[in-house]
Amino acid sequence: MTDSRPVVTRFAPSPTGYLHIGGARTALFNWLYARGRGGKFLLRIEDTDRARSTPEATEAILKGLTWLGLDWDGEPVSQFEGRERHAEVAREMLANGSAYKCFSTPEEIEAFREAARAEGRSTLFLSPWRDADPATHPDAPYVIRLRAPREGQTVVRDAVQGDVTFGNDQLDDMILLRSDGTPTYMHAVVVDDHDMGVTHIIRGDDHLTNAARQQQVYQGMGWDIPVFAHIPLIHGQDGKKLSKRHGAVGLHEFAAMGYPAAAMRNYLARLGWSHGDDELFDDAQAKEWFDLPGIGKAPARLDDKKLEHVSGYHISRMADDELMSELAAYLAETGATALTELQKSRLLPILPVLKAKAKTLPALLDQARFAMIQRPVEIDEKAGAALDSVSRGILAELTTALRGVSWDRDDLEAATKQIGESRGLGLGKIAAPLRAVLAGRSSTPSVFDMMLALGQDETLARMQDHAG
């Protein structure tokens, strides 16, 4: 399945709520496919449902895509604003014979269906106006319906699903334009995709049946049919359709949980697509490798442990300045207080140590807590158990010894080791009270990493506060 036109993909969400993780993956697939081929990635807001579409939801979608790092070409297109163009195309189809006026009332349609059910026939409505002489048309409201083929088959040539065949007797003459002159969603989508020059439609496989009906609109207008690629939906870890009962399903929830955008891109790319055995990769590799044949036919499953693994990989590889920006964005996303300049100056030196172990941004900040707090350090019960009269005496002796050393790791370790040996203690016995006074807890980075990050004055002051 080839298409010689420059690649143009699109993401077309309905602004009725937050950006779902499934929508985010669809957007990512479209973005990767276009960007990997020097093409365009367009954004269309399908806001024809005026009762449910809100500016707030549109803003949430744009914010989610921006956070994920997916840039789009041009301004987002409003489907609602194209309603006159949609109506114009419906009238063109009326003129070329691929559509017709239907004057059947809702009551007549329902009566047809009731009779069909009673007789065991298909309830697909067969309009009596399909082949009516225009001279018999009444002066009454009407809809414009597609004149769909009644016999034979419609084959959707799908880049993921393969050839999918639909019997035309199962596809009705769908309404293109309602009696009030407004277009239906199914019709508007086709007109928009054509006018935007979309060459590849990558979307969820819940739209597969729609593709058969929409393909008939393309054919009715004599337009090129884009390449369809219908991707399986995402399921929860239990194999059932993803819903809120599985936990986080909105992209904003994953952002608030502290997964970096780069990690989410990597993880979502592998959710239903594969490139050999490659699990961990960057954007450049993803753009180079991503292709439609690599998308599987089975539903993908969310896997929290795999996401954590991917997240830890990307955090460990981030440049320190990039990681500081990620932390600032995370704090802003969660409404937390921004880091002060002092906190940043303490955090930066220890980032190489922290990022090697952290799986998420809050986990990293938790280990960096010692650098965030101010004196006097509050000590929790578990850490406080390491502070007795003996350990306080050791701290007092160590405080004096450290005043005269150069503040580098080797000298700090040597001085601490010497104090321990004079007391017949190993380094571990001294580390516990040091963790308590420097961080207020027992689970911390290395005491020497903390000392270097805090600096000599702050370290000695914290030790002095609890020395005996």
Describe this structure in words.
The chain is mainly α and 468 residues long. It folds into three domains: 151 residues, HUPs (Rossmann fold); 114 residues, Glutamyl-trna Synthetase, Domain 2 (Glutamyl-tRNA Synthetase, domain 2, Orthogonal Bundle); 86 residues, Arc Repressor Mutant, subunit A. It is built from 20 helices and twelve strands. The strands form five sheets. It has a three-stranded parallel β-sheet with strand order 1-2-3, with helices on one face. A three-stranded antiparallel β-sheet has the order 4-5-8. Strands 6-7 form a two-stranded antiparallel ribbon. Strand 2, helix 2 and strand 3 form a beta-alpha-beta unit. The longest helix is centred in the N-terminal third of the chain and has 15 residues.
Structure at a glance:
With 468 residues, the protein is mostly helical. Helix content is 47%, strand content 10%. It has helices at 21-35, 55-68, 83-96, 106-119, 185-195, 208-221, 251-256, 261-269, 283-289, 304-317, 320-333, 341-354, 361-367, 369-372, 381-384, 389-402, 409-422, 427-439, 447-454, 456-466, and strands at residues 8-11, 40-45, 77-78, 99-102, 143-146, 153-158, 162-167, 175-177, 200-204, 227-231, 234-235, 300-301.
